[in-house]
Amino acid sequence: MKPLVSVIKIGGNIIENEKELARFLNLFTQLKGPKILVHGGGKKATAMAEKMGIKTTMVQGRRITDKKNLEVAVMTYGGLVNKTIVASLQALKCNAIGLSGADAGIIQAVKRPVEEVDFGFVGDIVYVHTQSLLTFLRSGLVPVFCALSHDGQGQLLNTNADTIASELAIALSKEYTTTLYYCFEKPGVLADIGNDNSVIPHITKETYFGLLKDHAIADGMLPKLENCFYALDHSVHKVCVGNMDMLLPKSTIYTTLTL
Amino acid sequence: MKPLVSVIKIGGNIIENEKELARFLNLFTQLKGPKILVHGGGKKATAMAEKMGIKTTMVQGRRITDKKNLEVAVMTYGGLVNKTIVASLQALKCNAIGLSGADAGIIQAVKRPVEEVDFGFVGDIVYVHTQSLLTFLRSGLVPVFCALSHDGQGQLLNTNADTIASELAIALSKEYTTTLYYCFEKPGVLADIGNDNSVIPHITKETYFGLLKDHAIADGMLPKLENCFYALDHSVHKVCVGNMDMLLPKSTIYTTLTL
User: What pLDDT sits at residue B242?
Assistant: First the structure.
């Protein structure tokens, strides 16, 4: 029987709200067993770029990471957000260690190839080196990852936090029984996007295809669910989607995904 | 016989110059055995604060770290400078891991007590927790520290990089024979401040007091040397002061300090 590990990804809605973040970090600290936190940066980087007079270019609704915007991302995600979370967790006696994907060479990526759009310094993950990560987990450390990877040639790369979480969970599944939590503002995958009481408690691959056929999944939710099933297809044991209350020991209102 | 470890501190003159930094990182990578890099941020934080319209208050020639300036320090030192160095070292096959003093709870400090001057969020180191640091060194990782500590209550603190280097070296001296390198723009401690060819090759505590009596040490050098002898008094084996050439295998032009 493999030991358990939890990989929890939090989104901008938690990062941007001091009280929400404090509440989340308390819940996270109480979660038993080895665990990893992955955070995005939310709108903080955009706000920071504005303050510094750096323009953000959007193409097809997606942000382009030029050199200056990458610097802002490294400062904001890798610096301010990451170290603030680490210091807060340390105060809760959770032995956190803040990491980018470059640290200990853990998350190797390639700069996204330029096709129709040049997204700039955006990384697609090619490999997760687990050796140091396993050392950290086994020595009781709690890794806190920001959404940055590197290409092994000296270049840092902006990388989707959902993908970082799923790739870490996949890589750890050789040694651990892994649960991946996507923690966002909704209580789970909703049958009716306008109704928070319509959480679908359990989705399997079979029911997922049914939901797709019925167009019952909101657009924004689709890439997240694709990520979930990709993780499940690659040995992750279970994926949970919901708001931070799903970390409460007795919580039942969230969506569990299994194969 | 204890194993050897090197703790190398680099200053702003290296951080601020891309070519100098690249050259230093090459030399650093070639240095054999377990090693730690400590970097300040130089003028990058001041420049960043200016860009963001944040004022820097100076009192008695020293910067006051208010909340906004601390944020800039965390972004610049803990984010941009630290992660850029880590990515560069990884490209050189040096398995670097970027750390603030909050990460793994390694460097605990207290906010400097307010006496004549309130320096703001500045930390005086009270304890170095070596457990995780030893794990990193023993597993072949190369820690890269920025000049930040934490108070264990959730507060990050700006901390002098020279002091971080000496306290790390002291803490490691229980398990290692430690050499502490202070790498700056001068080739060593100079007998004649205007003459780079006047490097004093060796200073002991005895000759140090002689130099002090003769007022032969420039003002800016005094706190650095005090730091050196403090480290030597607390079990650090040897301190070397000079420019980055002192890391060259055959280098002889730098100042070695021993008790």
Answer: 96
Is the pLDDT assigned to residue B99 strictly greater than 90?
Answer: yes
CB contact under 8 A, B154 and A104: no
Q: How many domains does chain A have?
A: 1
Between A194 and B34, the more confident residue is B34
Low-confidence ranges of chain A (pLDDT < 70): 42
Q: Is B41 exposed, middle or buried (0-12, 13-18, 19+ CB in 10 A)?
A: buried
* Number of helical H runs and strand E runs in chain B: 9, 14
**Which residues span the domain enclosing B82?**
4-257
> Which chain B residues are closer than 8 Å to A148 by Cβ?
83
d(Cα A87, Cα A96) in Å, to the nearest integer? 8
Q: How far apart are CA A144 and CA B232, in angstroms?
A: 36
Q: What is the pLDDT of residues A107-146, one digit of tens each?
A: 999 999 998 889 999 999 999 999 999 999 999 999 999 9
Judged by a CB distance cut-off of 8 A, whether residue B93 touches chain A is no
| Of residues B76, B84, B104, nearest to A97 (C-beta) | B104
> B21 touching A, CB under 8 A?
no
Interchain CB distance below 8 Å, B97 and A135: no
Compute the CA torsion angle B4, A142, A227, A212 (nearest 10 deg).
170
Q: Report the residue of chain B nearest A99, measured CA to CA.
A: B98
DSSP string, chain A: -PPEEEEEEE-HHHHT-HHHHHHHHHHHHHS-SSEEEEE--TTHHHHHHHHTT----EETTEE-B-HHHHHHHIIIIIIIIHHHHHHHHHHTT--EEEE-TTGGG-EEEEEPPPSSS--BSBEEEEEE--HHHHHHHHTT-EEEEESEEE-SSS-EEE--HHHHHHHHHHHHTTTSEEEEEEE-SSSS-BSSTT-TT-B--EE-HHHHHHHHHTT-S-TTHHHHHHHHHHHHHTT--EEEEE-GGGGSTT---SEEE--
Residue identified by tokens 């306008």 is: A194
Chain A residue closest to B153 (CA)?
A: A91
Would an 8 Å CB–CB cutoff place A195 in contact with chain B?
no
Instruction: Report the CATH number at residue B94.
Output: 3.40.1160.10
Q: Which of B29, B74, B149 to mutate to test the interface with A (most CBs of A within 10 A)?
A: B74
Structure tokens at A225: 């669910």
CA distance A99 to chain B (A): 7
The complex's ipTM?
A: 0.96
Q: What is the pTM of this model?
A: 0.97
CB spacing of A91 vs B141 below 8 angstroms = no
In chain B, which among 98-127 make CB contacts under 8 A with chain A?
98-100, 102-105
